[in-house]
Amino acid sequence: xxxxxxxxxxxxxxxxxxxxxxxxxxxxxxxxxxxxxxxxxxxxxxxxxxxxxxxxxxxxxxxxxxxxxxxxxxxxxxxxxxxxxxxxxxxxxxxxxxxxxxxxxxxxxxxxxxxxxxxxxxxxxxxxxxxxxxxxxxxxxxx
Length: 143
Ligand code: CO
Description:
The protein is an alpha+beta fold. 21% of the residues lie in helices and 34% in strands. It has a single domain (13-141), classed as Roll (2,3-Dihydroxybiphenyl 1,2-Dioxygenase, domain 1). Cobalt (II) ion is lined by residues 17, 19, 64, 88, 90, 138.
């Protein structure tokens, strides 16, 4: 394998979170808190995606419950087509822009050509599931 260039994408470094599409965050907490014993640490609205996101930490990673706030939200469309369920897997990266460019350079189809603001003050960008063996992949750069 060729030596990576300085500033080039070095690979993902941790599992940031698992994103789960739900109709209502409140109605899921009986399961995620009551049955699994997790606790909801933080809820915020991500206006760019028209969702509310709830974060439930677990060890070094977390679950992200996503509830649509508008009918045109990508999460609303996902719920219509597939119902509730696992929506995406998010990997922490050093530099989301470099990660997206690195993936594109290897022929991966991108959802986001460049990073945009996500929840928790992070920069995020998505790869298309058609290029990722059916998995919607998110890159997350921590603030
Ligand atoms: Co996410």
